[in-house]
Amino acid sequence: MTHILILNGPNLNLLGTRQPETYGTITLADIEAMCAREADKLGVTFDFAQSNHEGEMIDLIHSTAAQGIILNAGAYTHTSIAIMDALSSVNKPVLELHLSNIHQRERFRQRSYISKVAFAMICGLGASGYPLAMRAMAEHLAL
Ligand code: CA2
């Protein structure tokens, strides 16, 4: 059965608790529940993880048994060559995901190291991007 890792980076554990004007009122637990409903519809399984630590995210990327990785790397998107290298090293399809449209935001958010190794990117759709990303990954893996 298709297995997907959905990995969330720093500060995303705060979703729904602070800065609702930027990131909305939905919590990460709500998003995980949305992903569980989508997994049932698609007939896939998934691991859902969040870490505030770059090295821990790299360890998760190295050790995952998933066939594909959906990654919202948070602010590490714009800084982490180490996460980009980890993604390259495992040779699995990566779908980059963001809640906000990073291209409409500050200039420093407009550079993504993850995009260099991702086959696709979804941004600006808020929490709805998560189930969409799962569908896109399932279709990509079935090709
Ligand atoms: O839009 C996204 O999904 C981001 O990956 C979110 C990151 C940001 O650094 C990226 O540029 C774009 C930030 C996540 C922080 O989430 C918070 C949620 C609530 C309160 C504070 C931060």
Description:
- This protein has 143 residues and is α/β, with parallel strands linked by helices.
- The protein has one domain (3-142): Dehydroquinase, class II (Rossmann fold).
- Helix content is 37%, strand content 18%.
- It is built from 5 helices and 5 strands.
- It has helices spanning 20-23, 28-42, 54-63, 81-90, 129-142; strands at residues 3-8, 45-50, 68-72, 94-98, 120-123.
- It has a 5-stranded parallel β-sheet, sandwiched between helices.
- Strand 3 (68-72), helix 4 (81-90) and strand 4 (94-98) form a beta-alpha-beta unit.
- The structure holds ligand CA2.
Record the SSE blueprint.
Elements: E1 3-8, H1 20-23, H2 28-42, E2 45-50, H3 54-63, E3 68-72, H4 81-90, E4 94-98, E5 120-123, H5 129-142
The protein binds ligand CA2.
Which sequence of strands runs across the widest sheet?
2-1-3-4-5
Q: Strand fraction band?
A: 15-25%
- The CATH architecture assignment turns out to be 3-Layer(aba) Sandwich
Question: Termini separation (Å)?
Answer: 14 Å
| CATH topology annotation | Rossmann fold
* Structural domains: how many: 1
